[in-house]
Specification:
By secondary structure, the chain is α/β, with parallel strands linked by helices. It is 45% helix and 23% strand. The longest helix has 24 residues.
Length: 233
């Protein structure tokens, strides 16, 4: 992977960046995504944000190597602390857990004025990101699910609007994704069949452990999820 060629996962993220955008890539790692986005004509400039020193150094080196220091600003900071309100109109956050992504957005809400699009790729917990979007008037407009190197990833794209608009069957679609559920491609089916197996195994283990209050609560939660997913598939 380099500034000219991204992983399938990051290429999918990049494909949703609007032409002419000013981008903030949060947790940019090597800054491959903003470099690629600029060199492929998606963006006019970018901020690459990193909280850890190692990735920050890698990002700076990469931007310098690509000769893009004049258009990509590499900054150290936690989440959206690296940008000023109104500075960017598109934000990408890829390769983190859904809870962390939702926390970053929540903590940096005041930085979202002027942002037209969020492109988020949670490694796990996509439902947590969807719930945050819905509660904060970000309308989910597109989703992708893909498999790369044996791992399954979801990409969620949102714009300011009616957070509830994409949903008909709220519980199932927050968990599975309204657009992904409509499409039901092979990767989607593989993911949820695997999840079902895991959940059913845990339910069996909980039943064997005995009826403690926490075990019963967990069992009920999983059984509800199992029912939702089986009905949807």
């Amino acid at each position: 992977m380099n500034e000219f060629r991204l992983s399938k996962r990051l290429e999918t993220v990049a494909s949703f960046i609007p032409k002419g955008a000013t981008l903030a890539d949060i947790g940019s790692d090597h800054a491959y995504l903003p470099c690629y986005a600029y060199l492929h004509g998606y963006i006019i400039k970018a901020v690459a944000g990193e909280v850890a020193d190692g990735p920050l150094r890698s990002a700076k080196q990469q931007v310098e190597k690509a000769g893009l220091s004049h258009v990509i600003s590499v900054r150290k900071g936690d989440g959206l602390a690296v940008i000023a309100p109104g500075e960017v109109d598109c934000i990408t956050i890829a390769g983190m857990g859904g809870t962390l992504i939702a926390n970053i957005l929540e903590a940096g809400k005041n930085k979202l004025s002027g942002v037209k699009r969020l492109i988020l790729q949670p490694n796990v917990g996509a439902d947590i990101v969807r719930k945050w979007m819905m509660s904060n008037d970000w309308e989910l407009i597109a989703e992708r699910i893909l498999k790369e190197d044996g791992r399954i990833y979801e990409v969620l794209v949102a714009e300011k609007g009616d957070g509830k608009k994409p949903y008909v069957d709220m519980k199932a679609e927050l968990l599975l994704g309204p657009f992904l559920l409509k499409e039901k491609n092979d990767v989607f089916l593989e993911k949820w069949r695997h999840e079902l197996e895991q959940w059913k195994r845990i339910v069996r283990q909980l039943a064997e452990k005995g009826e403690t209050e926490s075990a019963l609560a967990k069992k009920r939660e999983l059984e509800e999820k199992i029912k939702l997913v089986e009905e949807a598939l």
